[in-house]
Design goal:
CATH topology of the largest domain: Cathepsin D, subunit A, domain 1
Strand content: 15-25%
CATH architecture of the largest domain: Beta Barrel
Distance between the termini: 40 Å
Number of helices: 10
Strand order of the largest sheet: 6-7-10-5-11-4-3-8-9
Radius of gyration: 26 Å
Number of strands: 11
CATH class of the largest domain: Mainly Beta
Length: about 300
């Protein structure tokens, strides 16, 4: 049987890329296409070297683990050991899922002349079978992780939040609220809901103690005491909640908001602070609510940018 190394290289390149892409997509990591391609190529070259037995050390288990670490590091550039470990685990789980799907597909298609040498499967089966197996594996893996995410504990949904306004800043615990779809109606900016008691160090008492009057325009004497530049940051945000239909919330444009979770950090300067007059949780376990869109929008933009070839 004639084996074409360029075909083996291309098949492994495609499968490695799909696995790396799926891992990044599931973990919502920033994807840079050249990094993914270079990492995939490294894994493909390893498959060729392993098959040809150019260097016996390549069959060593430790070398295989080192290769996986190197591929993950090249593809995602993790910021620390903890991030690297998580990415490596998801990379392995995704690889196992894809491998299972590929084997199942090969079993049903029954292509001729399949053999394995040094852990590398080769044969006369077309590339489209490998790609189809990868796509099916991606769909199954993504659905499985979506199911798992719905069972996340509340403590895993708590983020550290830094809000900067007029040269001042506050630090809060914010809970990810998938039902928080609030946006400022004119600009479309996302809204972070923060309970009023946390804002006295960054917003004047004249505003916080007279929110309803300011929303209704009933307090000219108060607005006259507030700087005009400060007033331009005010936003009135319509909202609906249980027991409160067609409500209005006073908001202000933040200078910057930093959202942190473990070693990941998201900086935004297009966020509105929505002032909530009562407590959001018992024992102040969290004092702010952030929406899922606030975390995902920039990553989606980065993915679109990266697919255009930026490195």
């Amino acid at each position: 049987m004639t084996i074409y190394l360029d075909v083996v290289l291309l098949e492994n390149l495609c499968m490695n890329y799909i696995i790396l892409f799926a891992t990044a997509y599931i973990m919502k990591l920033k994807m840079k296409q050249l990094r993914l391609i270079f990492s995939s190529l490294l894994g493909s070259i390893y498959a060729i070297v392993s098959y040809l037995e150019i260097l016996p050390v390549y069959s060593n288990f430790g070398v295989k683990i080192l290769l996986s670490v190197l591929m993950v590091y090249i593809a995602y550039n993790p910021k620390g050991i903890k991030s690297l470990s998580k990415q490596l685990i998801i990379f392995y789980l995704t690889s196992f899922a894809f491998g299972g799907c590929a084997f199942a597909l090969l079993y049903f298609v029954r292509p001729q002349d399949i053999l394995m040498k040094n852990g590398v499967y080769i044969g006369t089966y077309p590339i489209k079978i490998a790609l189809l197996g990868g796509i099916i594996g991606f769909i199954i893996t993504y659905i499985a992780f979506c199911i798992v995410k719905t069972k996340i504990k509340k403590k895993d949904m708590i983020y550290n939040l830094t809000v900067k306004l007029d040269g001042k800043e506050i630090y809060l615990k914010a809970m990810l609220d998938t039902g928080n779809l609030l946006k400022e109606p004119i600009t479309g900016m996302p809204v972070i809901v923060i309970q009023k008691s946390e804002l006295y160090s960054v917003i004047t008492e004249k505003v916080l103690d007279n929110i309803e009057k300011l929303i209704g325009g009933e307090s000219e004497d108060i607005t006259s005491q507030i700087e005009e530049e400060y007033l331009t940051k005010f936003r009135v945000i319509p909202f609906s909640s249980i027991g409160k239909q067609n409500g209005l919330m006073l908001g202000l444009k933040a200078d910057e908001v930093i959202i942190e979770k473990e070693e990941e950090q998201e900086k935004r300067n297009d966020v509105i602070i929505g002032i909530f007059p009562w407590s959001l949780s018992k024992n102040n376990a969290y004092t702010a609510l952030i929406g899922l869109d606030l975390l995902e929008r920039r990553r989606s933009d980065e993915f679109v940018t990266n697919t255009k070839g930026q490195y």
